[in-house]
Every structure is written in C-alpha cells, then in structure tokens.
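OP here, attaching both records as promised.
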Amino acid sequence: MGRIALGVEYDGTDFAGWQIQQNQRTVQGCLTEAISLVANQSVKTVAAGRTDSGVHALQQVIHFDADAVRDERNWILGLNTNLPADINVTWAKAVDDTFSARFSATKRAYRYIILNRVSRSAVHVDRVWWYFQKLDVALMQAAADCLVGDHDFSAFRAKECQAKSPFKTMESITVSQQGDCIAIDVIGQSFLHHMVRNIVGVLVVIGEGKRSVSWVQEVLESRNRAHGGITSPPEGLYFVNVDYPEVYALPTVSTFPVVW
C-alpha cells in the first residue's frame, strides 16, 4: 500500500470538531468518506492535530494508506469534487511509510484572532472573537512572555484532556495588532486540550486591566485550571501550520487568515 499526505483547510463552524463522532458531522468523517470513494476502498486517516468544534484550519496535514494509484493532481481534484464546500484539499504528496502526520510533526502553529471594537462584525462573526472592552496589547505580550519555554501547563488544560503529561514547550507567543484586530500566534511542538484557548482567556483578562501581568505566573505555578481565566470561544482559533523534517519535502501554502 502507498501512503499519501494531504494538506487540508476547513471552516470549522458547522463541524463537531475533527474527530469522527457518532451521529455528528466531523471533518475527519467527511474526509474519510471522500478519500474512500476516490480510492475505491476503506481508509483510515491520521491528522497532525485534532481541532474542536468551531475551530478552523488553514494547514491541517493528514495521511492515509491506500492501494489506489493516482497522481497528486487527481487526488486533489477527485477529493475536492467529493468534499463539502467548507473542506478543501490544498495539496497531495506520496510519502514513505516512515511519515506520520501526527508523530513526524516537529512544530505546530496556532493563531487566535480577536476583533477588539465596540461593534460586532456581520462578516466575521464565526471567524473571530468579538471582544468590545479595550485591550492593551503591550500588557498581553508581557504576560505571554512568561509562558514561553518549558512549563507544566496543568492550569491551562481542559478537564477532558487525555495527554499523558502536562509539560509542554512553548517556542513563542506573539501578540500583534492591526487596526481593530488582535492576533495571538502560538508556536510549539504540541499542545494540551484547550491550551491555546485557555491562554488567550488569561491574556484577555490582563489586557483589559482586570489583572496584573504577574497574574499569569501565578496561574501557571498554581497548576490548577480553576485558577485560570475563561476559555475563549472556538471561532477565533485557527490551526495555521505544521512543520516536518525537510526529508519529506512537503508542499506549503499561504496560511495567513485575512481578516483586515
């Protein structure tokens, strides 16, 4: 059997997340169905990372094994013909069986977008978190800097998280602003369930001035989720990119979400 890797983008608004669930519309379910149809056999799909209900992806990477022989262009065209409008395959590439979309990944990147203005958006309602209280980006960045490095992120993990260890390494967290939009870019090898959304929830409280910058350190050191802020809503979160060793020579696509 041959192994194929795919680059996939999707609007998570109308999905119950990535993972197949009984009687639920999921990204994995739609993709697996389309791939099985094009490959003319049942397949199993493995993703770089699971996304929750409402979370979007600009460069999700998956792999599957199949006997079918198709060139890369035909995989793309065949799959997109059989996929709903809110899922799209951006590239396809044959890889060897040492490649795993999940375990070969060396780095994952997420972006969270906040619309920070008095009025809500009619256009971006399902693609940003509308937060009308004024936020201070400098304070949010100062707090984010405290989370970079190796830490026990127990205070930022969901109760349902199945990860064996709460220890993760954050390579960088960058808070930037253009006009009314604030972007929080988080890069690391792997993440806990709801980790990015919980980090954003703490940064927003600090940015609004309700807590000091030092509060983020207190939350981190508490190792207790109850000490943290709110979990930010899913619609502002994007799975932006995944890095792999150069030996696999996977394609890249433009992944910057245009909201301004």
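Record two, same layout:
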Amino acid sequence: MRNYCLFVIGLIIILLSCNEKQEKKTLLEQESEISSEASLIILGTVQDAGSPHIACKRACCSNLFENPNSNRKVVSLGFVDHDNKQTFLFDATPDITEQIKLLKRNASWPTGELPNGIFLTHAHIGHYSGLMYLGKEATNANAVPIYAMPKMKNFLEQNGPWSQLVTQKNIDIHLIEDAVPLSMTSNLKVIPLLVPHRDEFSETVGYKIIGPNKSALFIPDIDKWEKWSRSILELVKTVDYAFLDASFYDGDELNTRDISQIPHPFVIESMALFETLSKSEKSKIHFIHFNHTNALLDIKSKQAKKVLDNGFKIAQFNETFEL
C-alpha cells in the first residue's frame, strides 16, 4: 500500500511538471505569436488644445488643473510592426514626448527613441506642432521621415521654425497624394484620403491604415460628413476599425464661440447617420478627438452610456488593436 501511494504521488508530480512545461511552452508560443503581429495603439484622444483647456473656467477643467489626468493626451495613433521592427506615428502632437516613449514600450524589440516615420493629417496645432521637439533645441533628430500632402509640405518648408527642421535635416519630408497607397513595410500600407476641413495652411487628410490582417480608418478632423465626396458609411464597411471625429457631442457644449466657425460632425449627428449600419458595423466605430467640453471624456457620463448603448465605441488612451 505504501509503495502504491508513493507511485501515485510520483505520478502526480510528473503530471504537474508536464503541465508546467506545457504552460511555459504555451506562454512562449504566445509571446512568439505576439512578436509576429502588427499593432495599432491609441496614443491620445483629446482635441488639439488638450484637457484641461487653456484659460478654461468650466467645471470640466477646474479639477484637472490641480489634479492632471495622465490619460488626457492629444489625438495620435501609433503603429508597431513587430515583424519588420519598425514603428510609425500618425500626427505629431504637443504630447509627442510621452507618446513616442509609449510607442517604443509597445515594441517587442530594442528600438530607437524615434519612430521610423510620421504621417501628418494637417496644419492645425494639435496635429503637427510636436515636430518642434525634433529640432536642435530638443532631440536634434536626423532626417526623421515625415509624410505630408503638397500644401502641408510647402507650409513646413516655407515657414519658421518648421523650415529650420528642413534646413538642419532634422526631418525629411516625403510627398503623399490623395488615394495613392504607400507600402511602408510588408505589414503596413497607408492610403491618404482628402477630407473637407478648415484648410487655412494645408490640406486635411485622414488615413486608411492597412495591416497584415486587418485595417483601420483614421479621420480625426472633418467639417461634416455630408460635405465629403466619399461615403463614410461605405468606407466603414471596408475596414475593421474606424476612429472618427467626435470633437463635440452636440451644439450645446459651446456657448462662448460661434459653433459655425468650427464645424465638426456632432456625435449625435454621426450616430443618426450611422443608425442604418448593422450592429457589427457600428461596433467598428470608435469616436475620438474630443473637445475638453465633450462629456465622452467621462466614460461614466450619460452621454457615453448613450453612445455605448447604441452599439458604438469610445476610444480610450493606450488601447491596442491587432492589425
């Protein structure tokens, strides 16, 4: 009997050891699996001027001046190609310092401090002003590839201090065209899409970001969906994720400025437009680019609940999506 008990105990130890080895193997396999994927990371969700907003006296900002929320970063996306060991940034925001560090931390290999390329959407402060940190006062970068439309390229080349980044070779501007795909790596194709917006200094584009398995649409700024020559409804159907302009929940947020002078699709307008989409198509839509007044910044707000109840999603800082 004693020998039998010892045999059973020994058998249990062997089985547990095998399970442990299998578990370790599974974890290693998972790690290997992750390292061969491409990922899209939300590096920021807030409109250009951030939250809290400069000179804001509203309740939405008052506590944040005393107790900053580290998740309140200006809108940007990061792309990590684990296969080809490259990273890319979509828009250069005032929060670029922390955003490129987070992008680096998401890489599965020892990478440099700066991304392999930066795609710009347009010349409004939250979308390109981060380039200043590539200059000699900061990183003094060496020819970081910048992807920009013709007017955006000309704006950077002809206006200081941005022109100094060009003459000092801190950046190397690559011209892009509407609807012309760019093959960046074997895991990344990017298609710029012109959108109607306040184009004082440059054109405005969104991007279709195509990974090895899935794709995403990124349109942080547009005037109104009905002004666009393309159908946003049809475009949503062609991607797996859609990160779309949600600057204002509705027109009641701003009572100090003329809302007609800063046109964006209100979230309530977008939800009405997207109502005809199927449940699965609605779930692709992640609202992003929130003004500091937008109640969607508070995921517990009644407005956020309505968005989620209607089948849509609200982009969150540091979310990761496999592409």
